[in-house]
Amino acid sequence: MLSPRKIATGVYWTGAVDWDRRLFDDLIPLPDGTSYNAYLVQGSERTALIDTVDPEMTAVLMGHLDKLGVERLDYVIANHAEQDHSGSLAQVLARYPEAEVIATPKGVKMLVEMGLAPAERLRAVADGETLSLGDRTLEFIHAPWVHWPETMLTYLREDKILFPCDFLGSHLATTDFYATDESLVYEAAKRYYAEIMMPFRRVIKGHLKRLSEYEINLIAPSHGVLYDRPEFILEAYQSWVADAPHNIVVLPYISMHGSTRKMVEHLVDALVSRGVTVKLFNLAVTDIGELAISLVDAATIVIGSPTDLTGPHPTVASAAYLANALRPKAKFATVIGSYGWGGQMVKKITAMLPNLKVELLEPVIVRGYPQAEDLAALEQLAETIAEKHAALMA
Ligand code: FEO
């Protein structure tokens, strides 16, 4: 177990690194593990703990508080009610009977309803409200939908440290404390943004604008590394939430007998020869996190599927559901694929994408193996996509 780590005078990291976790929500792959970061802030008069840790790691948090000799805790700041940050509240409150939990009004309600803290130990704070620890001041910035409705960020004014909980974080288990390997952290943070934050892109834009009013020396999120160069992650987020997509096609597909695969291969070649980048995912073997990352910037989504019992292959349906839920900024979408004896594959896939604000391009669907005219239709589709992208980026 790592020891508590000092960030500034009286400010410590008291989190837990989860080296072995490979799945979040039993859905999201965590190729690099994760961490649950909690922070202790000691003022001249009072002490606050910012967030707790996943219930599996409560003993690690308690060990940090032992090592730091914390005998009294006045406040626990619950930036976010989800269990990986508020799941140890009960044990912390039992150990520190004087501690009061601080959250947004919605956060208070959720913590009570989710059985994570009793109402009598909770206090709601308004947006912009401050809490004095003596020589230190915590300011609370309401930031709903990063990624739950009750979330807030905490700003330590005197040290100019932002504690944004999930926001700006990454699933990364590492002994690096800061983002020293920026290319590694960029990829992990982009994966995190894609999987967790992307559906709330427009709201996040507003939060980033608000944060531009603050002087920030250090960002200390609740997953992954800290940012001692805050502009690194803030600029990355600015590019991810921007409206303009890139000259990229995302192409997730499944092929049962090779027909859809042949179509996919032909389309990929036709697109690449027209200068379009393709992110190709055989869904039988793909990491859905990689697919999510590719959706951050793509201008077009092409879904490739055979027809299975009159509809899309179930694995394709699952990917379409995910793409719809993540609400990427793509401007165009279509379907290519095959059938043996009929069905409504295209209709069923497009009906699964109501959240995508896209222009639907003419699908290419063939019976059995693609013939010369089908390959010509794919060439035409590639031409249309290249022209649409060129117009978009002109
Ligand atoms: Fe890391 Fe939304 O919890």
Could you list some keywords that capture this structure?
12 helices; Rossmann fold; seven-stranded mixed sheet; Metallo-beta-lactamase, Chain A; 394 residues; single chain; 2 domains; alpha/beta; binds MU-OXO-diiron
Overall helicity: 25-40%
How far is it from the N-terminal to the C-terminal residue, by CA? 53 Å
CATH class placement of the largest domain:
Alpha Beta
Q: Give the number of domains.
A: 2
Kindly report the spatial arrangement of strands forming the biggest sheet: 1-2-7-8-9-10-11
Fold-level CATH name of the largest domain:
Metallo-beta-lactamase, Chain A
Structure summary, number of beta strands = 23
- Architecture of the largest domain, CATH level 2? 4-Layer Sandwich
What does this structure look like?
This protein has 394 residues and is α/β, with parallel strands linked by helices. It has 2 domains: 5-241, Ribonuclease Z/Hydroxyacylglutathione hydrolase-like (Metallo-beta-lactamase, Chain A); 249-389, Flavodoxin domain (Rossmann fold, 3-Layer(aba) Sandwich). Helices cover 34% and strands 24% of the residues. A 7-stranded mixed β-sheet has the order 1-2-7-8-9-10-11. Strands 17, 18, 19, 20, 21, 22 and 23 form a 7-stranded mixed β-sheet that branches. Strand 14 (152-156) and strand 15 form a beta hairpin. Helix 5 crosses helix 9. The radius of gyration is 24 Å and the shape is elongated. The structure holds MU-OXO-diiron. Residues 80, 82, 84-85, 147, 166, 222-223 line the site of MU-OXO-diiron (FEO).
